[in-house]
Design brief:
Layout: H1 10-14, H2 16-51, H3 55-69, H4 71-84, H5 90-123
Helix pairs in contact: 2-3, 2-5, 3-5, 4-5
Length: 124
């Protein structure tokens, strides 16, 4: 008899390993979707910038794309950290890590990129 959750039979769903596998695949899918949705935009913007000889903008777009590409590594750091700190349930940990692994580094990168521009204008 299926449970309705991805139509997985109840005996399999009771297994802790099966549940852990399902949760990890769901979180990984969120990371892949988030990075996969952002990466084509970032790379396209980089390509268009260099085609128009806008090297500074190209550099910024490439930095952003490297940060998003590195999201998989960041996920592998954030998720065990949340688990070791006993923050939230396993599902909440995976969901938070899936979003934080690319959104937080991208936010920090954007603050640095824009902050350098603001400080350069202010210094002149």
């Amino acid at each position: 008899m299926a449970t309705g959750i991805l139509d997985i039979p109840r005996p399999i769903l009771r297994s802790r390993r099966a549940i852990a596998l399902m949760l990890s695949l769901t979180a990984l899918a969120a990371v892949v979707f988030g990075a996969g949705a952002a990466l084509p935009y970032l790379l396209s913007s980089s390509y268009l910038a260099i085609k128009r000889s806008l090297t500074d903008q190209h550099k910024e777009w490439m930095i952003r794309s490297y940060v998003v590409t590195f999201a998989f590594v960041t996920f592998r750091v954030i998720q065990p950290t949340l688990q070791a700190a006993h923050i939230g349930t396993p599902l909440e940990q995976l969901a938070a890590a899936a979003w934080a692994c690319w959104a937080v580094p991208l936010l920090i990168t954007e603050l640095i990129i824009q902050g350098r521009k603001v400080l350069a204008i202010r210094a002149n």
